[in-house]
Design a protein that fits this description.
The complex is a heterodimer of chains A (113) and B (113). Helix content of chain A is 0%, strand content 58%. Chain A has strands spanning 4-7, 10-13, 19-25, 31-38, 42-51, 54-57, 64-70, 73-78, 87-94, 102-104, 108-112. With 113 residues, chain B is mostly beta strands. Classes of the chains: A mainly beta (113), B mainly beta (113). The A-B interface holds A 1, 31, 33, 37-45, 48, 50, 56, 58, 88, 90, 94, 99-107, 109 and B 2-7, 32, 34, 36, 41-46, 49, 51, 89, 91, 93, 98-101, 103-106.
Chain lengths: 113, 113
């Protein structure tokens, strides 16, 4: 699992509430990514980070924000959750070297009622 | 587990047969490709990768073939086992400095004992 954990693993919340998902890595990798996975869409990039306090948007970033105050943690925040944000969220890291392989965490299943 | 397999192409094989899973990619500038396996309720797991300067790469029981002329990638699994049952999807790196991947929607492989 390349030393990646996600918390919580499951969450049910109500529309309009804020939600923060955490991704934690133990191996000090520079690049971290947040994806969502929905039936019929595959994995879609929400935000990514290329270093502490260095983040950028992916293809589906509306309604999400991220923060990375230290190398090992990458937080994804839904400021005001909506039902369309019900999904499975995966964090990934790039382990470096000359290739672009990304390794994924176990995922967080979020349900917004 | 998460129902990410809905509406996916499916492939059903008998245990011991060889499996071939196909993927069409979109960007002719992509220079790196990865195959992932995702079991129900788990995060995607790296299987094998290939760079665009190669047309074939072999791993343990798996082979990836790349045809850049028609932008096609395939994953061959030899002597398929019940434990190979999962969703398989390809990813491409279209280039750029932040190593973002674009993912296909996947194929559901079912291995019948």
């Amino acid at each position: 699992d390349a030393g990646i954990t996600q918390s919580p693993r499951h969450k049910v919340t109500e529309t309009g509430t804020p939600v923060t998902l955490r991704c934690h890595q133990t191996e000090n990798h520079r690049y971290m990514y947040w994806y969502r996975q929905d039936p019929g869409h595959g994995l879609r990039l929400i935000h990514y980070s290329y270093g502490v306090k260095d983040t950028d948007k992916g293809e589906v970033s509306d309604g999400y924000s991220v923060s990375r105050s230290k190398t090992e943690d990458f937080l994804l925040t839904l400021e005001s959750a909506t039902s369309s944000q019900t999904s499975v969220y995966f964090c990934a890291i790039r382990t470096g070297g000359t290739d672009n392989e990304q390794f994924f965490g176990p995922g967080t299943r979020l349900t917004v009622l | 587990g998460e129902s990410v397999g809905l509406h996916l192409p499916t492939l059903s094989v008998q245990e011991g047969d060889n499996s071939i899973i196909n993927c069409a990619y979109s960007n002719s500038a992509s220079d790196y490709f990865i195959w992932y396996k995702q079991e129900s309720g788990k995060g995607p797991q790296f299987i094998i990768d290939i760079r665009s300067n190669m047309d074939k790469r072999q791993g343990q029981r798996v082979t990836v073939l790349l045809n850049k002329t028609v932008k096609h990638l395939s994953l061959q699994i030899a002597a398929t086992q019940p434990g190979d049952s999962a969703v398989y999807f390809c990813a491409e790196n279209p280039g750029g400095s932040n190593y973002k991947l674009t993912f296909g929607k996947g194929t559901l492989l079912t291995v019948n004992p």
